[in-house]
Design a protein that fits this description.
There is one protein chain. With 305 residues, this protein is of the alpha/beta class. The chain has eleven helices and 14 strands. The strands form three sheets. The protein has a six-stranded mixed β-sheet, sandwiched between helices. It has a four-stranded antiparallel β-sheet with strand order 2-1-4-5. Helix 3 crosses helix 4. The longest helix is centred in the middle third of the chain and has 16 residues.
């Protein structure tokens, strides 16, 4: 059986701005229908990578192909076939939802009103087509921005921080839309700095200082990069407990997590040793329970190395 061709192939892609290396020899492939989360702090190279893959920036070194087109030599073919929702999406406040979709559809040569209606329905704006964009909430404006990126029915979608600034309910609804698109065969690359959102992705790429630290499924990343066991401890006083556990041999990392302590320890370190350490520091242990590794744990461990 023939395997499908990758939608994206990136080979040692590099971008320099003077002496500054924004993206450093990044290599990966993306398969059809995947949701790839591109994770990292501001300035880690996520948006620069996107802009090279869209043909908006010329690589300093390396190569990449998108939908079979070379991003350096065939940028126009790439941009006409993909959808891009940028962090600062441009929508016109003085136009209605329908007029914005119609305008951007025209940019791609889409004049079919049925397609524009279909797009509005797809992103949940079917009943708000005549609403002025300025009257939309942030969450609905982002749905409109997604609709603009989808109006020409692309097979590949780039979403750059698509849920930044919206409330958790709107974020969850937006991810439901993303899942639906992936199930219909659209391949999606999405940058985010929300670690919990990255859990929704099929695979997650972790960037730092222009380097791709890892790319795998969330589960595989946790198995590979979070050694030991996670413990959630409720104790008082918290700060005394934090300092005491940080000095305990076998504790790999300890941190404050809201109203309790979060400890990652070697497998042979259990409740008894943790409790004994707290007692010696005159810290009262209220409760202790096993926790689960997160992608934040993965990133912090990778970033330390």
């Amino acid at each position: 059986m023939n395997l499908p061709e990758p939608v994206i192939v990136v080979d040692h892609l590099t971008r320099r701005f003077g002496d500054f290396v924004a993206v450093n020899a990044v290599s990966f492939e993306v398969q059809p229908g995947e949701i790839i989360g591109y994770l990292g702090p501001n300035g880690s190279g996520k948006t620069t990578t996107f802009r090279m893959l869209l043909g908006l920036l010329t690589p300093s070194q390396g190569r990449a192909s998108v939908l079979g087109y070379d991003v350096s030599r065939q940028a126009e073919q790439v941009r006409s076939r993909v959808g891009y929702m940028s962090q600062k999406f441009a929508i016109y406040d003085d136009l209605t939802v329908w007029e914005n979709l119609q305008f951007y559809g025209g940019v791609y040569g889409i004049t079919d009103k049925a397609r524009i209606t279909e797009t509005a329905e797809l992103v949940g704006l079917g009943n708000q087509k005549q609403v002025l964009t300025r009257d939309l909430s942030v969450g609905w404006r982002q749905r409109l921005a997604l609709g603009i990126a989808l109006v020409h029915n692309p097979r590949l979608l780039f979403l750059d921080e698509p849920t930044s600034g919206v409330d958790p309910t709107a974020r969850r609804a937006f991810w439901d839309l993303i899942y639906g698109l992936a199930e219909s065969g659209v391949t999606i690359l999405v940058t985010t700095h929300y670690m919990d959102e990255a859990e929704y992705c099929h695979r997650v790429a972790m960037m730092r200082d222009g380097n791709l630290l890892a790319l795998d499924t969330p589960l595989a990343l946790k198995d590979q990069f979070v050694p030991g066991k996670v413990w959630e401890l409720y104790a008082e006083p918290l700060l005394d407990g934090l300092h005491a556990l940080a000095r305990l041999p076998g504790v790999l990392r300890t941190s404050l997590s809201g109203d309790h302590l979060r400890v990652i320890a070697e497998p042979n370190l259990g409740e008894m040793e943790l409790n004994a350490t707290l007692e010696l520091a005159n810290v009262k242990l209220i409760s202790i329970q096993p926790g689960e590794a997160t992608l934040e744990d993965v990133f912090l461990n990778l970033a330390r190395n």
